[in-house]
Amino acid sequence: MDKYKLTLIGLVLSVFFYFTAITLELELFEKFIAFLASIEQFEVDEIIIPLLIFFVFLFIDTYRRSKKVEVENAKLNIYKAMLSSSHHILNNFVYQMDIFKLTAEDTPGFDAKILAFYEDIISNTSHQINSLSNLTTIDEYSIRSSVMMG
Fold first, then answer.
1. pLDDT tens digits, residue range 7-27?
2. pTM score of the predicted model
3. What is the DSSP string of the chain?
4. Tell me: the pLDDT tens digits for 101-135?
5. pLDDT over threshold 80, residue 30
6. If we measure between CA atoms, which residue out of 84, 104, 80, 81 comes closest to residue 92?
């Protein structure tokens, strides 16, 4: 219903004007024509059609721009939701991997280089996720470069 809010307002106004004109026996179109004839001396009537054309195209352009912004905001919200979900999944994975790390640290003879490598992997992954979370421009280049730099 909200999608057609302006259409419904236009319909109500149109019906109101129609019934008002019928009830009060107003000849609105004739009065409009008479008004245009009365302002003929000022040469204002020539500007009406160009202004109408301009405002129609202005309305169309504004409408298209608002739709584009709406789509971009929807994409941004989807990106943020996906990123948040990925962040949650990866954090759960890291916490579960900490159990393996603790077991490895308590295992005699376990190679310390492997544990250091494990720490580097976890640190790098966390840095990449944080880089993705802090992006200010959401586009393919920004996303790829934030992951590559990490």
1. 888 899 999 988 988 898 888
2. 0.52
3. -GGGHHHHHHHHHHHHHHHHHHHTT--HHHHHHHHHHHTGGGT-HHHHHHHHHHHHHHHHHHHHHHHHHHHHHHHHHHHHHHHHHHHHHHHHHHHHHHHHHHHHHHSTT--HHHHHHHHHHHHHHHHHHHHHHT-SS-SHHHHHHHHHH-
4. 888 888 888 888 888 888 888 888 888 888 877 77
5. yes
6. 84
Of the CA atoms within 13 Å of residue 102, those in its CB half-sphere come to 6
Taking the C-alpha atoms of residue 65 and residue 54, their distance in angstroms, rounded to an integer, is: 16
Q: Where are the domains of the chain?
A: 72-149
Q: Name the pLDDT band for 69 (thresholds 50, 70, 90).
A: very high
Tell me how far apart the alpha carbons of residues 74 and 33 are, in angstroms, rounded to a whole number.
46
Tell me the Cα Rg of the chain: 32
